[in-house]
């Protein structure tokens, strides 16, 4: 038994030694007083930006790879370079690869991670593919373009928040003045104020909505748990997706509902001011209260959908 055990240990040692591991670290530090914007153009890597109270922009990029041959692993890692360009008040980071040395043969694992800490008022502009993006908070302008990766935003309270996401899920804790475009991914929001959304092939879950909102939905369901007293209007165009909205009864709403091959349902206490029902289409004007003085506006145009309002 003793010799068998030692033989197993020896085999494990040989196997472990045969697997080459390598890592490359890039560290940079800038004064945040020199820049009001950070721009990143990257692919095949995750990006995380965190706010902090210091006066620096701290950047750490870690590339790691595992493989069967040390030379192949090292060559792959060393084929990745980063350009840091100070373009006026914008700090630009671009990932560049030496295509002649970019060889994946014999490499089992590869990862690249950006970890950035900076003041929350620095504007963020990221274009990332094949990797996740995590924003742990910002009060500056936020622009994200992400392909084949998930996206998380803790809070984004700047004057402009624009996100273009494809083939990835999006989760937002708090955001205002948002312009979102999502394809082939789900959207989960806790609090939103002033949302413009265009989404295809993904479901939407929103805990609380306020402000002025416009939603265009194709092939996805919408669920809104509650609406704030600060909600001004909500316009929805949905095709091939169901809608459920709660919290409407506590406010004065005028609802204009139009459907093609769609069904609408609402509280029996609400007042139907007008309705037109055809073979495949229907139109309703519904009030949540008898004589609303200054009602909030809800407009829904639905096609091949079920709509439930509460």
From TrEMBL:
Going by the entry's taxonomy, the superkingdom of the source organism is recorded as Bacteria
Transmembrane helix among keywords: no
Question: Which InterPro entries does this one have?
Answer: Toastrack_DUF4097
Show where the DUF4097 domain sits. Answer: 36-273
Q: Please give the coiled-coil regions recorded for this protein.
A: none
Q: Which residues form the signal peptide?
A: 1-20
User: Mind listing the UniProt keywords for this protein, alphabetically?
Assistant: Signal
Q: Is Phosphoprotein found in the keyword set?
A: no
Q: Name one Pfam family in it.
A: DUF4097
Q: What is this protein called?
A: DUF4097 domain-containing protein
State the species of origin. Cryomorpha ignava
């Amino acid at each position: 038994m003793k010799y068998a055990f030692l033989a197993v240990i020896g085999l494990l040692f040989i196997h472990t030694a045969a697997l080459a591991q390598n890592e490359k670290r890039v560290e940079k530090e800038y004064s945040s007083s020199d820049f009001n914007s950070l721009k990143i153009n990257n692919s095949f890597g995750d990006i995380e930006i965190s706010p902090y109270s210091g006066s620096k922009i701290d950047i750490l990029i870690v590339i790691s790879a595992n493989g069967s041959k040390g030379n192949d692993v090292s060559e792959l890692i060393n084929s990745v370079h980063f350009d840091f360009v100070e373009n006026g008040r914008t700090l630009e980071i671009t990932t560049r690869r030496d295509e002649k040395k970019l060889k994946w043969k014999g490499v089992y694992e590869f990862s690249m991670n950006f970890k950035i800490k900076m003041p929350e008022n620095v504007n963020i502009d990221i274009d990332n593919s094949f990797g996740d993006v995590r924003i742990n908070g910002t009060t500056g302008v936020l622009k994200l373009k992400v392909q084949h990766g998930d996206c998380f935003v803790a809070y984004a309270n700047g004057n402009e928040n624009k996100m273009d996401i494809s083939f990835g899920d999006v989760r937002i804790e708090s955001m205002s003045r948002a312009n979102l475009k999502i394809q082939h991914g789900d959207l989960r929001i806790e609090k939103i104020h002033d949302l413009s959304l265009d989404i295809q092939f993904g479901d939407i879950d929103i805990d609380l909505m306020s402000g002025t909102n416009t939603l265009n939905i194709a092939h996805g369901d919408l669920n809104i748990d509650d609406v704030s007293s600060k909600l001004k209007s909500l316009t929805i165009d949905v095709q091939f997706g169901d809608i459920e909205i709660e919290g409407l009864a506590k406010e004065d709403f005028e609802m204009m509902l139009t459907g093609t091959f769609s069904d609408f349902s609402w509280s029996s206490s609400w007042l139907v001011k007008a309705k037109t029902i055809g073979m495949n289409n229907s139109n309703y004007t519904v009030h949540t209260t008898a004589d609303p003085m200054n009602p909030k506006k809800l407009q829904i145009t639905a096609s091949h959908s079920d709509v439930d309002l509460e």
